[in-house]
């Protein structure tokens, strides 16, 4: 059954991983749900880590199959990279029927110009992260890393993760949230009064002023306990917390 009116869903920060089968089941259940939405936007960190489209672990194919099925039911699928799956490439996108979007994209959401992104670029107080980000988003670095065997890439991802966890323990909470001036400037640059993002794992709806006009920032939550989904139709948007599936 197709949705009769246009319904658009946004998700982020699922952190799918072979070691977290409950989250994987919850995600596949969302994909299979009726009625089928018109569009699904995945705003990064779909996977806990992504070390290249040639990775042979079965989770990638399970996710691709679920996405293909949803696309086959008429849902348009879009993906913006997160800081965990920035190496997800055209090959996986093709297999999954995902359209890869630029890191900052403006869409027409039922008549409201809306900026969508992962959200890590808003965390400009986290200087150490932004430095790391510049290094690992550089095309040369990525080409060098992707030329390494899978085992070496797996090891590199694991050491980046443990270094990141160690660094995070010493960071005050405010540093890992968005910087309000950055939010204001980026919304102003794109000429929007609505922003949707994830990454901070702090779901909510924040009112603000952009160029003295009322604006809002909708933040998606992570999928560690149940799932966070922003569901929008012509009447507006609702941020829904889905319960964790039964074990
Ligand atoms: O992910 P999360 O939310 O826990 O933390 C992020 C920031 N950390 C990261 C690093 C990722 O977690 C690492 C995982 C990458 C997986 C894919 C790898 C594929 C490539 C390799 C294999 C092919 O994004 C964290 C932020 C936090 O969000 C909140 O915004 O604070 O940033 C950091 O912790 C960064 C540290 O502060 C500084 C960097 C320490 C690592 C140094 C390693 C040096 C390696 C150099 C390589 C060029
Ligand atoms: Mn993230």
Please provide a brief summary of the model.
With 247 residues, the chain is an alpha/beta fold.
Structure commentary:
This protein is an alpha/beta fold. 34% of the residues lie in helices and 23% in strands. The chain contains 7 helices and 11 strands. A 6-stranded mixed β-sheet has the order 4-3-2-1-10-11. Strands 5-6-7-9-8 form a 5-stranded mixed β-sheet, covered by helices on one side. Helix 1 packs parallel to helix 2 and helix 2 (58-72) crosses helix 3. The relative contact order is 0.18. The structure holds ligand LP5 and manganese (II) ion. The site of manganese (II) ion has 9 residues, from loops.
Q: Which short descriptors sum up this protein?
A:
7 helices; binds ligand LP5; six-stranded mixed beta sheet; five-stranded mixed beta sheet; alpha/beta; 11 strands; single chain; 247 residues; globular; binds manganese (II) ion
Identify the strand order in the major beta sheet: 4-3-2-1-10-11
Low-confidence stretches: none
Q: What portion of residues belong to β-strands?
A: 15-25%
From N to C, what is the helix and strand string?
EHEHEHEEEHHHHEEEEE
Derived structural class = alpha/beta
In percent, how helical is the residue content? 25-40%
- The radius of gyration over CA amounts to 18 Å
Q: Which sheet architecture does the biggest sheet show?
A: 6 strands, mixed
Heteromolecules bound: ligand LP5, manganese (II) ion
| Number of extended strands | 11
